[in-house]
Specification:
heterodimer; A: 329 residues; alpha+beta; Uridine Diphospho-n-acetylenolpyruvylglucosamine Reductase, domain 2; Enolase-like, domain 1; 5-stranded antiparallel β-sheet; 4-stranded antiparallel β-sheet; 21% strand; B: 217 residues; Ubiquitin-like (UB roll); 5-stranded mixed β-sheet; globular; binds flavin-adenine dinucleotide; binds iron/sulfur cluster; binds FE2/S2 (inorganic) cluster
Chain lengths: 329, 217
C-alpha cells in the first residue's frame, strides 16, 4: 500500500472541505472495498478522509417513505423488523450479501459504490483493463469471463456490477441525496451509475468531491409482496451469478404493477422495465412469468464463458416472480 | 504490511515477551512475527510491498492513535497504512488474531469492535480510535477460566490445525451472544465468513450449539 495522509471528518462540510482537487482523495467508510483495492494497488489515494464520524446514521420509516442514511451499516438495516415485513426485498438483498463481519463494517453508500470483482481489474499485473487504465484494452474479452455481464456491457468493458442492495434500490425507485462543493442535490438512483460505453473508468455521475448522504424511497403496502432471489456458486458468502429483486402489486388475480431488477448479469444496476410492462394486466402463472423472463434477457450478449447466464438469468426471474406471486401480501 | 521505521509502540506492552533465559515455541513465533521475515511469509503482498517501500519518503505519514484493546488503552504512533490486524500482531504482540488472506475473504482476522464482529485486516487502525476492540486474548476471565465458547470448541474438537480458530471463536461468541444460533442452518449462515481449510465445520456447528445452551443457562 502506498503512503497517504489520513484525516477524520466530523461533518459532511468538513469532509468536503478536506477534499483536495489536486490530490487523489478517497472517502473511507467501512473500508471493505477501499482498503482491499489499496492493498492491491488498484486504487492509490494520496489522501484518505475517514467519514465514519460524520453522522448519516438515520433509519426513518414512516407510513409511506423510507430514508436510509449513507453511513448505516448493512447489518443494522438488515435487522430492522419493520423493514423486513414491509419491504422484504430490501433486507434480503442485504442479508444475502457478503458475510456477517463484512456487513457489520460496510455502509450502504459504500455498498452501492463498490467496484467490480473482475479479476483483471483487481490484479495490476494484467496490463489490459480499460477500467483501471483507460485505453489499455480489456483482458476479460478474450480471457476468463464466466462472471461477466451479459446486459449493458460494451466492447470496452464487460465487468459485472456486484452489489445486491443496489438492485433493491433501483427496483424501489429510490433517490440519492448528495452534497458537494456546489451544494446539495437529489438524483434518481437509476441515474447514479453509468454504463461503461467507451469510458468504463467513469462509473457514476458523482463529482469527486460529492458525498452521498442517504437514500430515500416511497414504500407502498403492496411492497410486502417482494423478494430478492440470489443464485451463486455456493449457498452463502458469494457474489451473485444471477439475481432478481421483484415486487408485485396484484389486484383480483391480475398484476397492476411489477418491479424487476437484475443482479450478477449486468454492467450497472439493472431494471428490466420492458419485462415489467409485459406483466401488467396478466395473471401470474408459469407462462406469463416465463414471458417476462424472456423479455428481460432478450438483448443479452453472452461471451465465451458466460453463455450460461441468459438461461440462468431467465430461470431466476421466472422463479422469483412465481415465488412472489405465491406470497401472502 | 511491512513495519515502517517510524512506527514504534510507545508502551511497554508492545515489546516482545521473552522471560530471561526462557525460550519456548510461543515466544519464538511472536519474535518471528515482529521481525523482517513477515512480508515474505505472507506471499504475494510481500513482493508488492517491497517495490512500493523502495519509493518511500523518509517520513511516512503517521498518526498518533489511542487504541483500546481488551480493556487497556495503548498509545501508538503508527504509519497511516497500518491495519488493526497488523497493529495487534506486530505492535502489541497480540498474535492470537491471525492473518489468512489479508483481503476480507477468510475471517481469520475477526475481532470485536464495540461488541460486533469485524475483519481487522480491512480496518485501518487510525479509524478505530476510542472504540473498544476485543481479541481472542480478551475472552477468558482474569483467573484463566475460558469463555463457554472456547471451552465448547475444545470439548467438541472444533479444530484441527487451529489457524482459523481464533477467528471462528470470535464470530461464534457474537453468534451465541447475539442470539443468532437458533438452528444449525442459522449458525452456518452466520458463520459463513469464517473459512476453515481443515473443514472442521460440523464440529464447529456442534460446539456453537452446545455453547448456546451453556451461555443461556
Ligand atoms: C469477500 C467479500 C465478499 C463480498 N460479497 C458481497 C456480496 O455478496 N454482495 C454485495 O453486495 N457486496 C459484497 N461485498 C462487497 C461489500 O458489500 C462492499 O465492499 C461494501 O458494501 C462497501 O462498503 P464500505 O462501507 O466498506 O465502503 P468503502 O470501502 O469504505 O468505500 C467504497 C467506495 O465508496 C466510496 N464511498 C463510501 N461512502 C461514501 C459516501 N458516503 N459518499 C461518497 N463516496 C463514498 C469510497 O470512497 C470508496 O470509493 C463483498 C466484499 C468482500 C470483501
Ligand atoms: S471487463 Fe472491464 S474491468 Fe474487467 S478487464 Fe475488461 S475493462 Fe477491465
Ligand atoms: S485475514 Fe482478514 S479476512 Fe482473511
Ligand atoms: S482448523 Fe485448520 S483451518 Fe480451521
Amino acid at each position: 500500500m502506498r503512503p497517504f495522509i489520513f484525516e477524520r471528518a466530523t461533518s459532511p462540510e468538513s469532509a468536503i472541505a478536506a477534499f483536495h482537487a489536486d490530490r487523489a482523495t478517497s472517502f473511507l467508510a467501512g473500508g471493505t472495498t477501499l482498503l482491499d483495492l489499496m492493498k492491491l494497488d488498484v486504487v492509490r489515494p494520496e489522501r484518505v478522509i475517514d467519514i465514519n464520524a460524520l453522522g448519516a446514521n438515520e433509519i426513518e420509516i414512516s407510513e409511506d417513505r423510507l430514508r436510509l442514511g449513507a453511513s448505516v451499516r448493512m447489518a443494522d438495516a438488515e435487522a430492522q423488523e419493520e423493514l423486513r415485513r414491509r419491504v422484504p426485498m430490501l433486507t434480503q438483498s442485504l442479508a444475502l450479501a457478503a458475510s456477517t463481519q463484512l456487513r457489520h463494517m460496510a455502509t450502504l453508500a459504500g455498498n452501492v459504490l463498490q467496484r467490480t470483482r473482475c479479476p483483471y481489474f483487481r490484479d495490476v499485473s494484467w496490463s489490459a483493463c480499460n477500467k483501471r487504465l483507460p485505453g489499455s484494452g480489456c483482458a476479460a474479452m478474450a480471457g476468463f469471463n464466466r462472471q461477466h455481464a451479459v446486459l449493458g456491457a460494451s466492447d470496452a468493458c464487460i465487468a459485472t456490477y456486484p452489489s445486491d442492495f443496489a438492485q433493491a434500490l433501483i427496483a424501489l425507485d429510490a433517490t440519492v441525496d448528495v452534497v458537494g462543493r456546489r451544494g446539495r442535490r437529489q438524483l434518481p438512483f437509476a441515474k447514479l451509475h453509468v454504463p461503461p460505453g467507451r469510458t468504463p473508468e467513469v462509473e457514476t455521475t458523482l463529482a469527486p468531491d460529492e458525498l452521498i448522504l442517504g437514500f430515500e424511497m416511497p414504500i407502498e403496502p403492496w411492497m410486502s409482496r417482494s423478494l430478492y432471489l440470489k443464485i451463486r456458486d455456493r449457498d452463502s458468502y458469494e457474489f451473485a451469478l444471477a439475481s432478481a429483486a421483484v415486487a408485485l402489486e396484484v389486484d383480483g388475480g391480475a398484476v397492476r404493477q411489477a418491479r424487476i431488477a437484475l443482479g450478477g448479469v449486468a454492467a450497472v444496476p439493472w431494471r428490466a422495465r420492458e419485462a415489467e410492462q409485459a406483466l401488467i394486466g396478466r395473471v401470474l402463472d408459469e407462462a406469463s412469468c416465463q414471458l417476462a423472463a424472456d423479455i428481460a434477457f432478450a438483448k443479452a450478449q453472452p461471451r465465451e464463458h458466460n453463455a450460461y447466464k441468459p438461461l440462468l438469468g431467465r430461470q431466476t426471474v421466472a422463479r422469483a416472480l412465481l415465488q412472489a406471486a405465491a406470497m401472502e401480501a | 504490511m511491512k513495519r515502517p521505521p517510524t512506527s514504534q509502540p510507545t508502551t511497554s506492552s508492545g515489546a516482545t515477551a521473552r522471560e530471561d533465559g526462557v525460550f519456548n515455541r510461543r515466544h519464538f513465533l511472536v519474535g518471528t512475527a515482529t521481525s523482517a521475515v513477515l512480508p515474505l511469509s505472507f506471499g504475494t503482498t510481500g513482493v508488492r510491498e517491497a517495490v512500493t517501500d523502495a519509493a518511500l519518503p523518509t517520513q511516512v505519514p503517521s498518526s498518533s492513535v489511542a487504541l483500546l484493546v481488551n480493556g487497556r488503552t495503548h498509545r501508538l504512533i503508527l504509519d497511516n497504512r497500518t491495519t488493526l490486524l497488523d497493529a495487534l500482531r506486530e505492535h502489541l504482540a497480540l498474535t492470537g488474531t491471525k492473518k489468512g488472506c489479508d483481503h476480507g475473504q477468510c475471517g481469520a482476522c475477526t475481532v470485536h469492535l464495540d461488541g460486533e464482529p469485524i475483519l481487522s485486516c480491512l480496518t485501518l487502525v487510525a479509524s478505530v480510535e476510542g472504540r473498544a476492540v476485543t481479541t481472542i486474548e480478551g475472552l477468558a476471565q482474569a483467573d484463566g477460566a475460558l469463555h463457554p465458547v472456547q471451552q465448547a470448541f475444545i470439548d467438541h474438537d472444533a479444530f484441527q490445525c487451529g489457524y482459523c480458530t481464533p477467528g471462528q471463536i470470535m464470530s461464534a461468541v457474537a453468534c451465541v451472544e447475539g442470539d443468532r444460533a437458533g438452528s444449525d442452518a442459522e449458525i452456518r449462515e452466520y458463520m459463513s465468513g469464517n473459512l476453515c481449510r481443515c473443514a472442521a465445520y460440523p464440529n464447529i456447528v456442534a460446539a456453537i450449539r452446545a455453547a448456546k445452551t451453556e451461555v443461556r443457562s
